Amino acid sequence: GPDPSHLQWDFNHPASSPWNQAVISQLMCLLVDMRQNWTVETRSDEYWTGKIKQKFARIKRRVDRAKPCVHDDLSVETNAEVAARLANHKDETLMKARRDININAMVAVKEAKGDDDVVAWRFLHSVITKLGSDGMSSEDSDGEDTETIFCTHTLPWRRDIIKELNLIDQRRLQDSSIF
Fold first, then answer.
1. pTM (whole model) above 0.70
2. Three-class SS of 43-97
3. Contacts of 172 (CB under 8 A, 6+ apart)
4. Residue 70, strand partner residues
5. Long-range Cβ pairs for the range 167-172 (8 Å, 24+)
């Protein structure tokens, strides 16, 4: 089993694997000892086990994302390509967060001013709230043993909202005093 003085996760298997369960057990033993000195509200062992599993899942997603991918020609990504892909992912994530902040601020400003186009901005806000900044469902999955793959079907009533998302981004640049 895992060495208690040097615990390491097995990211090639889910949290339910025997090795990772042993790591969780060791962490729970350490946590029990630490909790004796805590003055905060007590929580059950199940609560803390769940928190440890959540942390494992977040770290595993990051580790998996940082692994080199295989190109169509079956060559493997170089370290530079991995770094560029991760940097691009971070930039996209930050852009989406900025877009969420911008749409919330724009709706608040339009409502405060009583502008006529507040209805359109509320609609854009609801689209982004329901679908996310990239217009798709979340890529994260609650199931740790499976990897969800989303397939996009272009249906007759589905519309590309890139124009609307760009409008939100441009609005921030035009009204920089608001943001």
1. no
2. CCHHHHHHHHHHHHHHHHHHHHHHCCCECCCCCECCHHHHHHHHHHHHHHHHHHH
3. 98, 102, 178, 179
4. 76
5. 167/124, 168/99, 168/102, 168/103, 168/106, 168/124, 168/128, 169/95, 169/98, 169/99, 169/102, 171/102, 171/106, 172/98, 172/102
Amino acid at 105: A
Do residues 125 and 104 lie in contact, with contact meaning Cβ atoms separated by under 8 Å? Answer: yes
Helix (H, G, I), strand (E, B) or coil at 139: coil
65-113 pLDDT per residue, tens: 888 888 888 888 899 999 999 999 998 888 888 888 888 888 888 889 8
